[in-house]
Amino acid sequence: MIGFGTWQLGSRTAYESVRAALEIGYRHIDTATLYQNEADVGRAVKDSGLGREQVFVTTKLRPQDARHARRTLESSLRLLDTGYVDLWLIHWPTGQDELVSTWRELLSAKDAGLARNVGVSNYSPALIDELTEATGQQPAVNQVSWSPAQHDPALLDEHRRRGIAVEGYSGLKNTDMRDPVLTGIAQRHGVTPAQVVLRWHLEHDIAILPRSSRREHIAANFDLDGFALTKDEVTAIDTLTRTG
Ligand SMILES: NC(=O)C1=CN([C@@H]2O[C@H](COP(=O)(O)OP(=O)(O)OC[C@H]3O[C@@H](n4cnc5c(N)ncnc54)[C@H](OP(=O)(O)O)[C@@H]3O)[C@@H](O)[C@H]2O)C=CC1
Fold this sequence. Notes:
By secondary structure, the chain is α/β, with parallel strands linked by helices. 44% of the residues lie in helices and 15% in strands. The chain has a domain at 4-171: TIM Barrel, CATH 3.20.20.100. α1 (11-24) runs parallel beside α2 (38-47), α2 runs parallel beside α3 (69-80) and α4 (99-111) crosses α5 (125-135). The mean pLDDT is 97. Residues 5-7, 30, 91-92, 121-122, 143, 169-173, 192, 194, 209-214, 217, 220-221 line the site of NADPH dihydro-nicotinamide-adenine-dinucleotide phosphate.
């Protein structure tokens, strides 16, 4: 449920931050071909001394690589220095003409054991249904932008009904940490507003992928077990959705 995000972490920072995250206790790392740091993530996992099976590694396929999806995955695996990824996602929707064929590529990689799970990112439920109807197999995960200011309970219900896990990204970046609702709740629990935001995701069963290059933030973002939000607090954060 607590993954470590690596977008915009350049080579050295990606390596050092992933090493720190694994030392602190994270066991889920989120990268992508687009981030150009798969080799650094792979090296950090290797150097951590953890067994490969102890770390859940996600990478993503850029839609522009859809026509050579298998070759792209093989390149990701080489860079990550591993025989498989735990989760392979289509980073954002492909064009309609490649929608189903790309999904079939992911399913075939799963059958070949190169990806343990396959899913999508930034897909609408309607697009997901097209994939499922064509192949009889639905994505395990949809990774979408999720924050107090930008979230949609109806969308969450759509995923729940289908049994698709939701991973939320950019939850910290898209939040005003000075919002009095968040600072008030944080003060009450003796935590930071960032921790409140991440805890709010977990209360909704949404996996989180906080990214940081600062050890104290990496540690704080993983330290979410010591408090729980009340129902009223969850509702108060739910209503921070930006309108208009
Ligand atoms: N599938 C997709 O299309 C997308 C996926 N993602 C994935 O989701 C991950 C997370 O999203 P991302 O957009 O990176 O943004 P985040 O919401 O994780 O925010 C990152 C920012 O928050 C700051 N921050 C982190 N922890 C704290 C803290 N405890 N207190 C205050 N500030 C903090 C970081 O700064 P500092 O380094 O100083 O701590 C950084 O500037 C990505 O890294 C990527 O793996 C992201 C976007 C799109």
